[in-house]
Amino acid sequence: MRALLALPWFLFFLTILRLARKRPSLAELAPIPGPRISVIIPARNEAGTIATVVRSVLASGYADLELLVVDDRSTDGTADLVRQMAAADGRLRLLPGAELPAGWYGKPWACHQGAAAATGALLVFTDADTRHEPELLGRAVAALEQARADAVTVAPRQRCVTFWERVIMPQVWVLLGFRYHPDRVNHPRHARDVIANGQFVLFRREAYDAIGGHAAVRGEVAEDLALAQRLWRAGRPLHFAFADTLMETRMYTGLGHLVEGWSKNIYLGARRSYPDEPVRRALVPATLTAAMLFWLAPPAVVALVLGGLAPAALLLPAELATGASLTYWSLISAGMRIPAWYGLFYPVGALLTLGIILRSTRRGAGRVEWKGRTYGAAVNR
After folding, report:
1. Is residue 202 part of a domain?
2. How far apart, in whole angstroms, are the C-alpha atoms of residue 247 and residue 62?
3. Which of 84, 176, 239, 361 is spaced 20 to 30 Å from 265 by Cα?
4. Chain mean pLDDT for the chain
5. Is residue 156 part of a domain?
6. pTM for the structure as a whole
């Protein structure tokens, strides 16, 4: 009977089927032509990645395309690289970003400037750390038309290279996978059901303008989530699809980058995901903390029993739960194209993610740091 204490960790294997079901998928749609697309890339200190995304967008099979890179006051040569590439391809324009106004975060401000300069009937906002396959835009337009949507967003492949990426990113990605699945996002009943992924969002220009564009979410860290909620409130459909064979991104490049990035996003984004539910919003820190403690508990109990600090009767269920957890996270790793043996280090990932959650919660909206900028509660620097 003691073994039944491990049952909750075994029940999590039922979630694998949901997480592995990557439908709807852009790969199932044939690319179609459409009106002019303006692809907008906000870029601040992206010299290491900007050439890759620019070349991949310009290699698109979509015929009527312009690419606008908004240089958000970079200090690392990003603008020079884009300027050189623009000299060789007239579809590419470099937009020097204006000074950040009071009350704005940097990314919404850069996207706003790009949208103001765009000439397309369709707008795509994509990140500087992404890489696109040639058929991505055509297939996204096909999804827009087939779903009769006003916007399309996608889940690309998350490329994880370093040890830290490979143990932390699965933890966060599973949280997001539970919280938002296309089944829910594409059939929403509440504002909490929708999300957009700022790594790639395609808008009909008319819909973007109707909801106020990025000016309406100027003070939001999770501006993509806020835009999705504005679409829902306006009764404008959003379509979410997988695109892991058509696009990839590497969000963060090491431990420091991971800590900085998720500290900015995880607490404020999770709170923003419950815009009309103050109780759930208040419980966000406890919910996120409990999720990490759930995975840390089995190996912690094993260690305590072996150290003589917990009853020996707990050893068997703790060992079973630990084994189930190791297997579960190995399967998750393999599903993310990370070597499965990284699942053996899941306690390290869960512990570090817990630290990030606590750090993000402690800072809240009072101190947000990103790309060399520090934003206070007033979002004024």
Report:
1. yes
2. 15
3. 239
4. 95
5. yes
6. 0.94
